[in-house]
Design brief:
By secondary structure, the chain is an alpha/beta fold. The chain has 9 helices and 8 strands. The protein has helices spanning 48-58, 71-81, 109-112, 129-136, 142-151, 157-160, 187-196, 212-215, 217-227; strands at 5-9, 30-33, 63-68, 86-92, 124-125, 155-156, 173-179, 202-206. The strands form 2 sheets. Strands 2-1-3-4-7-8 form a 6-stranded parallel β-sheet, with helices on one face. A two-stranded antiparallel ribbon has the order 5-6. Helix 7 links the parallel strand 7 (173-179) and strand 8. The longest helix is centred in the N-terminal third of the chain and has 11 residues, at 48-58. The protein is globular, with a radius of gyration of 16 Å.
């Protein structure tokens, strides 16, 4: 399978900047997007539909979409809308809900209770500095950790509460990259997510925490280049 472009989709609380170490190492045409809801993104409502539109609009020809963490949801939505333009999906510790589920449906019941206070307006979801330090940045040197912590932004609750409906095309190339020391999307959760995907899904591993694009950019780029 050959791809005309690689589109990178960031995860929760980050932006396109998180791929800055990977992009120069990937062969061919590459682009990283900023999903609506953060500085530098398109001035549109931060809905799941607009997240998917952002990903779809960045594709050209038959593209490979590389999605980290929460980015998996918008990648699935985009692939469902544009099967002729998205030829492959690669999830890096990616969230993969079943069709018809939203982000909140993936959480344990006690965590899902926080949805009860998300009733009025369009609240945002934040991660505390301590949680980000321990879960998002585990395994990173202090300089990298501090850089990431200084750039995190809240996520729009509207997009995270919208179910994603999708059906994966039979010829869609699928890869799941497991991060074996992940504290944000734990290995057991990753195994569940990959089980939602078709059996043909390629399964690879990186021995790192959640931020593989920061800690192992060379290894991650090599995986992508092997597909290209």
């Amino acid at each position: 399978m050959t791809f005309s472009r690689v589109v990178f989709v960031h995860g929760a609380f980050e932006g396109s900047w998180c791929w800055e170490r990977v992009l120069p190492l990937v062969e061919g045409d590459v682009v990283a997007v900023d999903l609506p809801g953060r500085l530098g993104s398109a001035p549109v409502a931060p809905t799941l539909e607009n997240w998917a539109d952002t990903v779809e609009s960045a594709t050209t020809g038959r593209s490979l979409v590389v999605a980290h963490s929460l980015g998996g949801i918008s990648a699935l939505a985009a692939a469902n809308r544009a099967p002729n333009r998205i030829a492959g999906l690669m999830f890096v510790a990616g969230l993969v809900p079943s069709s018809g589920q939203c982000y909140w449906d993936l959480l344990p019941k006690f965590q899902n209770m926080i949805r009860k206070w998300m009733k009025v307006g369009e609240p945002v979801v934040r991660i505390t500095r301590l949680a980000a330090r321990l879960r998002l940045c585990n395994g990173l040197p202090p300089a990298d950790r501090d850089m990431i912590l200084s750039r995190l932004v809240p996520e729009p609750g509207l997009a995270m509460g919208t179910p994603v409906d999708y059906e994966l095309a039979d010829d869609l190339d699928l890869t799941y990259v497991h991060t074996t020391r992940d504290r944000m999307v734990r290995p057991s959760e990753q195994r569940h997510y990959v089980s939602v995907l078709p059996e043909r899904t390629r399964r690879l591993t990186l021995d790192c925490g959640h931020s593989a694009h920061h800690s192992q950019p060379v290894e991650l780029a090599r995986i992508i280049n092997d597909l290209l």
